[in-house]
Amino acid sequence: MSATATSDAVLLQGIAKRFPGVIANHDVDITIRSGTVHALIGENGAGKSTLMKILYGVQKPDEGTITVDGQTVTFGSPTDAIARGIGMVFQHFMLADNLTVLENVVLGAEKLHGIGEKARSAVEQISTTYGFGLDPDALVEDLGVGDRQRVEILKVLYRGARIIILDEPTAVLVPQEVESLFDNLRVLKAEGHTILFISHKLDEVLDIADDITVMRRGTTVGEAKPDSITKHELAELMVGSELPSPETEESTVTDEVQLSLENVTVADARGRRLCAEVTFTIHRGEVLGIAGVEGNGQAELVETIIGMRKVATGRIRLGSEDMTAWGTRARREAGIGYIPEDRQRHGLLLDSPLWENRILGHQTQPPSVKGPWIDRAGAGSDTERIVKEYDVRTPSIETVARALSGGNQQKLIVGREMSGQPVLLIASHPTRGVDVGAQAAIWGYIKDARRDGLAVLLISADLDELIGLSDRIEVILRGRLVGEFDPQSVTPQDLGAAMTGANEATA
Amino acid sequence: MNALRRLGASLLAPVIAVVVAMIITSLVISLSGSSAGDFWSVIFSRPVDRAIVNIVNQTSLIYISALAAAIGFRMNLFNIGVEGQYTLASYAAATLAGAALFPGLLNVVLPLLLAVLVGAIWAGIAGLLKVTRGVSEVISTIMLNAIAITLVGYLLNKYGVHVGNGVRSTVIPESSRLDGWTFFEASDGPVWTLATLALLLGVGFWVLLNKTRFGFDLRATGMSQSAAVASGVNVNKMVVVSMLLSGAIAGLIWMPSFFGAAHSYGTAFQAGLGFTGIAVALLGRNQPVGIIFGAVLFAFLNEQSNRLTLETDISVNVVQITQGTIVLAVVVAYEVVRRYRTKLEQRTVAEELAGQRQPAPSERATT
Predict the structure, then answer these.
(1) Is the predicted ipTM greater than 0.90, yes or no?
(2) Which of A344, A346, A376 should be substituted to probe chain B, the one whose Cβ sees the most B Cβ atoms within 10 Å?
(3) Which structural domain range is residue A467 located in?
(4) What is the model's pLDDT at position A506?
(5) For FRET with B290, which of A355, A385, A463, A506 sits at 20 to 30 Å CA-CA?
């Protein structure tokens, strides 16, 4: 703990927060110096979010004190935190798409400068001071992700925040957008604002932060300065052991085509094209990665391959068979495994026990069924196998899926989709929201299956994961494949440029 | 221990609901200037033998109706049209049986099959409209109710037998009557033979839903349509099949009474069972065992309330307030209990996992 109390913007001492059966935070001590960018890092589930909710007044700590600008405070709600000059930008934007930038900023803070000219000039002034370059009259739905984030930050500044919490702000950005966000943050810092930056991306943290605090298992385990610590040391501090890496070994690609798409076009009900003329093949033993900024058609592409959406034009072949007209069930019976992007909506029956979830998606295949009957014993013992082999932490297979943590739910899904020797695996963000341990395990399963001849379609927002696991990477932009890359030689920057269309001419 | 806790939690909601309903009913009676004590002493007095027989018979009808509604509810399909489906089916079956085209038992079995078929078709219309034109089944089944009831009124008036002020279908021959079993005096009446239909349907419902692939698909669709679609369920097909099943069961609702006592479709027809069934299905959480309790409770309250006019100055309709509040309260109580159980389960999992967690791999010194 450095510096004197007066120059500390926020001081958290001995913070503890318990939920039934879980200790979310304990013995948390953090000192955030005024006018700095302070990074808070830790893997998923380390307690960062809970801590920030405490600082922002969403939750009350069970123990410990919060000191803001030298004064001890207790927050009953975010309103109290805002009154103290603390603002928070959440990972998921809270903007009304059909309103303008000005309207979004003023919404809920009409008392400050009204809704007229005064408000407009205040918004314009903030936008110019910090170099946001936002047009107050632009509709939010027309803005890109980076601009939307700036609107969120503007909202917080408009409400008078001097201390700004950014919850994983770069998760939704491509590398180029991250750079411009960091430029904005540097200006904010220069103007005397204090920024608390939550992340688990170490490169970014080393780039932008003045101080770093590491959290692990609900508590603060270390502090560091970016110039005196390496990425590797930081990672070890964060994970508590060696950091796993997704690097694949030598190629196992065969020349047998497992999946091929020919000029596949998908349209929505209004005839708008979601995917246009997509053509690619995946061979047995090959992992094809699809990179793209979210919302560029990759989700629709996946839903088309699994049969949840209809193809407008084009052909899809599995091996030598044309499966364009098949339903989802027929495709699953033919050996397509599916790890959905949204596991809770598409992959699980949350209020059903694990063994019933084992049956889901495999309702017509042994060991789950015998003829028209559900084979409870068969499904149960196979669930036990998955729980054991995939290290699903659960008291029993009778536990309902909702009670498991996200990582364990995901391991169950991966185990299930790997069952019955699939020929093709569609893995949509397979490690999103799971902890580092489970992430390494899931990477391991995909690698093993690939070695056994499985064809894999991998969609991920984590560029390191894509580069590490894929044999080939295709970039999708506005529903079209715009470039193919070799993961051996590509950098995240190259991919980022292709994903945003910065090098459309050359791709 | 855990199982006990769960059982306790699942009984909690209905018990709370009944208690709340009793309090509100008492309040209403007191406000209207009568004695709530009188009301409850009549309701909770031992039913006479005749009333017991009636309760059993009525339970069977309400139970079948609730099963019909429940099968739709289990996949979030709101078949409000049970009423119309069984009205039309009952009329069709009564007409066929009354025509006495077949001898003896065959004149029972074939009309029963016709009832199933008519109920299924009438519900199937709503199912088809939903999957082909996107018409909400709530709206279409309500409309179909009106059409069915008007249609039956018209047909009965045109082709029925006019007796005095009333009109009815032809009475079925003696050989097709299934009176049932007399447990008390003959004057107390029999428990209808076809009341056993309720039991058979209940068991069938449980087996279908819990033991078959079809039942799994149906439950999965009800719990999460998105997950069901991703797992390969053809939701449109499921909607049509479930509506057909729901209507098929609905077709049988009044049959025990028809073959046991009424013997013709006319003034003896008991309307309103379709709506009672919806309430009871909610009360029993769409579970075949839960619905038994709901059906008995409703039949009991209906029967006992008949005595109110004779023994007190309280209106029979007060019982409907009790029934309505029970249903309303139970919906709220189930949600409260469901949240409580989810929390309980999450805590149990956390506790059990905390117990088996290995010591931390290496508590390294920090920089």
Answers:
(1) no
(2) A346
(3) 256-335+423-507
(4) 44
(5) A355
